Amino acid sequence: MTTRSGGDRGSTARLKRLAATAAAELVEPGMVVGLGSGSTAELVIHELAARVRAGTVLTGVSTSRRSERLARRLGIPLLAPEEAPSIDLAIDGADEVERGTLHLLKGRGGALVREKLVAALARRLVIVVDVSKLVDRLGERTPVPVEVVPFAWIEPARELERLGGKPVLRHTALGQPYRTDNGNLILDVDFGPLDQPEALAREIKLITGVVDHGLFLGLTDTVIVGEPDGVRVLR
Ligand code: 5RP
């Protein structure tokens, strides 16, 4: 289903804000909400915090230490995933959204494992993006992030090459190997546009040393897209 509503033209930041505001409106009092990671998801956290300040009862389950710090600072009560009776709704960003399937590529922010766990626990996953994130095929613009344990990471890197990818170990701006919140490394693997993401996802998961990857297939309930003319809802 596709619906449209009005809005102003504007920058990427404006489009992200439109999507974030629309997503926050889906949250009802008393809900347990998965709090995503990345700049768009952080806009949602700000929206939800404003609700909490206005007296709405909400509980968050964060998908990264960064989101946890932000939510805590803004006064959103938090639970660990295993403490939450259930997660009603998770709201998160994405790096690519495949138009036809709503499959996702996530993990540029390095939070993919926690994001996938919270998405799996949630009754509903709502994705918030600006229109630039829509693609015809996953992998068109973004490599597939693969989280690996630090020990002997060269072995999963070689296996990823055997699958046809070009893995690059992610580094911080200071040139140190990037560490996830789980203490692991990330290989950004360029496979080009993906013809069969399901088969690739299965193959990657079978590699020893791989924790998980940024292909989120069949998890999305709704995508809220910020566009110059308003928001578009894809289901
Ligand atoms: C982090 C993610 C983010 O959701 C993704 O990178 C999108 O971020 P942004 O909203 O800043 O574009 O997957 O691991």
From TrEMBL:
Gene3D superfamilies: 3.30.70.260, 3.40.50.1360. Catalyzes the reversible conversion of ribose-5-phosphate to ribulose 5-phosphate. Homodimer. The lineage of its organism: Bacteria, Pseudomonadati, Thermomicrobiota, Thermomicrobia, Thermomicrobiales. It comes from the Bacteria. Pathway: Carbohydrate degradation; pentose phosphate pathway; D-ribose 5-phosphate from D-ribulose 5-phosphate (non-oxidative stage): step 1/1. This is Ribose-5-phosphate isomerase A. One of its GO terms (biological process) is pentose-phosphate shunt, non-oxidative branch. One of its GO terms (molecular function) is ribose-5-phosphate isomerase activity. Substrate binds at residues 37-40, 92-95, 106-109, 133. It comes from Thermalbibacter longus.
